[in-house]
C-alpha cells in the first residue's frame, strides 16, 4: 500500500476518510477544496482526472493542508481564497472570512443604487444572475413595481430621482469595516464605471488584504478607495461627509455571550475584533446609526447585516434616530439578517454634538 501510486482519486478518498474520522462534518467538501487548491484544478476537473498521478510537490502541499484542516482551521485560510458572488478574494488569518449571507447584503445595495441613483434601466441591464436569485426575484420585481408606482404618484419624488440618476450618474458608497473588501469590490465589479466607493477598516491587515484583492481584480484605486481608520474617521469632514448614497456595513454583531458557543473553526481562528458586537451585538451598529445622517445624502440608504435575534431592536434604533422606510430582510434560511433604513433628514458637521466628537 505504501508503494502504491498516489492518484487524484486515492488522495481524495484518503483525505475524506481521514478528516471524517477527526470530526470534519464536511469531509468530502474539505477534501475536494484542498485538492483543488493544491492542484489548481476545479472540482469538476478533479472528478475527470481520477487516474492522474500527483507529483511530490503536490503531495507535500496536500499533507500540510490536511494537517491544518484536521486542527479545525477554516478552508478559506488554508486555500488562501474564497468565492464571493462573482469574484474571487484572497483570505488570510486575522481578517474575517466572507459569508454567503453577506452576498444578499450586496444585492440589496445594488438594487437600491440601480433604482434610486443610476436609474431603472441600469438594473435590468446590469443584474447578474446568482444561484439564489430565482428565490427572491418575484419579490424584488414586486418591490420595484411598487417603488415605480410611488414615484409616478409624487412629483417631488420624480424630481429627486431625475436629479440624481441618469447615464452619467455615479453612486457613492461608503463601506465601514471592509475586511477582505468583498462587499466594496463586488459592488465595483458589478457596476463598473457607475460607482465610487470608500472603504474603511481599523485592522491594518484587512486594509492591506483588501487593497491586494482590489489590485488583483483590476479595479482602480479611485473606484475603490481603501483607508485605515476607525469607522468614519478616515473621511474628510468638510469634503466627504454628506456625499454618500449608501452606507453599508457588516459590523461585528455576535453578542458577547454567544461568542463562547461559536464553532471551533470560527472562535479559534477568525478575529474576535470582527465578530464580538458587545452585549446585544449592536455596539458598532449604534455608532453607525449615529454617523449615518452625517454621511448620507437625503434619502440615502443605511444597510447593515446583523445578528438574527436582534434585528427588531436594530430597526427600533433606526426609527428612533428619525430614519424612515425601515425594513428587515431575511437571509436564505429565513432568519432576519439585514436592516435597511433611509436617512430623510441629513445633518451637517456643525450639528455634531460634543459627545459624538
TrEMBL record:
Q: Which GO terms describe its molecular function?
A: nucleic acid binding; peptide chain release factor N(5)-glutamine methyltransferase activity
**What catalytic activity is recorded?**
L-glutaminyl-[peptide chain release factor] + S-adenosyl-L-methionine = N(5)-methyl-L-glutaminyl-[peptide chain release factor] + S-adenosyl-L-homocysteine + H(+)
| Gene3D superfamilies to which the protein is assigned, alphabetical | DNA helicase RuvA subunit, C-terminal domain, Vaccinia Virus protein VP39
Output the SUPFAM superfamilies linked to this UniProt entry: S-adenosyl-L-methionine-dependent methyltransferases (SSF53335)
Q: Name one Pfam family in it.
A: MTS
Q: Which PROSITE patterns match?
A: N6_MTASE
Matching InterPro entries, A to Z?
DNA_methylase_N6_adenine_CS, HemK-like, N5-glutamine_MTase, PrmC_N, RF_methyltr_PrmC, SAM-dependent_MTases_sf, Small_mtfrase_dom
Q: Which UniProt keywords apply?
A: Methyltransferase, S-adenosyl-L-methionine, Transferase
Where the record annotates domain Methyltransferase small, the positions are 170-253
* NCBIfam families reported for this sequence: hemK_fam
Tell me the function of this protein.
Methylates the class 1 translation termination release factors RF1/PrfA and RF2/PrfB on the glutamine residue of the universally conserved GGQ motif.
- Annotated protein name in UniProt: Release factor glutamine methyltransferase
- What gene does this protein come from? prmC
